[in-house]
Specification:
The chain is of the alpha/beta class and 229 residues long. Helix content is 49%, strand content 17%. The chain is built from 10 helices and 8 strands. It binds cytidine-5'-monophosphate. Pathway: Pyrimidine metabolism; UMP biosynthesis via de novo pathway; UMP from orotate: step 2/2.
Length: 229
């Protein structure tokens, strides 16, 4: 299991300060950085390149969802940017996902593409309101489509990791919604690091519990420690 830190802070300077602190205290192998919508819209490709120059592996989390041609063009640009992982929405469908998998094979790309299943901010009621089914059922259908399309894996909560792995052990799972203590923010399907490790998530994504902490490095150390247990 690897840790990915979400750089969602209000300024590039704050994100960069954290990235440099991480660089100083931990190895490249241990920690990836996630550039999401806020940072990318504000700081763009230049910010990604700065982080790459610091030696980080980058997860570009733009959660793209569009017609197949537009998605394909966007995935191609992410590949050219040299990011290591990116997100699409699984509900974009098989045609888009198949063409993305084909493009990445043609380009011999190492970039991993993971498809968002049910956002971790959904509880059962919120999910049902949109998809008219339970989270387990919805994720099961999406994960089957993702697998059949040849996409690398899914973004899900800890509660769906085993279900996804039961479809295929080769499906990669990325789990946000990691909390060190109980919280009342927008994330509804949460778990702590030890549970994530036990369940077998491949990648945990942690944002606010790290960047809102006074001792950010201390929190990261605690997470890495829990990952070893
Ligand atoms: O601050 P927090 O730990 O909740 O950050 C989680 C990060 O993971 C955020 O950047 C969010 O955009 C992202 N994410 C998520 N749920 C998904 C996909 C990505 O929370 N399904």
């Amino acid at each position: 299991m690897k840790l990915c830190i979400a750089l969602d802070m209000p300024s590039m300077q704050e994100n960069l300060k954290l990235a440099k602190e991480v660089r100083e205290h931990f190895s490249n192998e241990e920690i990836w950085l996630k550039v999401g919508l806020r940072s990318f819209v504000r700081d763009g490709r230049d910010f990604v390149r700065i982080l790459q120059d610091l030696g980080f592996r980058i997860f570009l989390d733009l959660k793209i969802y569009d017609i197949p041609n537009t998605m394909l063009d966007c995935v191609y640009e992410c590949h050219k940017l040299g990011v290591d992982m990116m997100t699409i929405h699984a509900s974009c469908g098989k045609e888009a996902m198949r063409s993305i998998a084909k493009l990445l094979r043609k380009e011999s790309s190492d970039m991993r593409v993971v498809a968002v299943s049910a956002l971790t901010s959904f509880d059962e009621d919120g999910f049902r309101e949109i998809y008219n089914t339970s989270i387990q059922h919805g994720v099961n259908s999406l994960a089957n489509i993702v697998y059949e399309s040849g996409i690398d894996g899914l973004v899900c909560s800890i509660d769906e990791v085993l279900l996804i792995k039961s479809i295929s052990n080769t499906l990669f799972t990325v789990t946000p919604g990691i909390r060190l203590e109980s919280s009342s923010d927008d994330q509804k399907r949460t778990a702590n690091v030890k549970v994530a490790k036990k369940i077998g998530s491949d990648f945990i994504v942690v944002g606010r519990p790290i960047y809102n902490a006074i001792d950010k490095v201390g929190v990261i150390k605690q997470i890495l420690n829990d990952m070893k247990l």
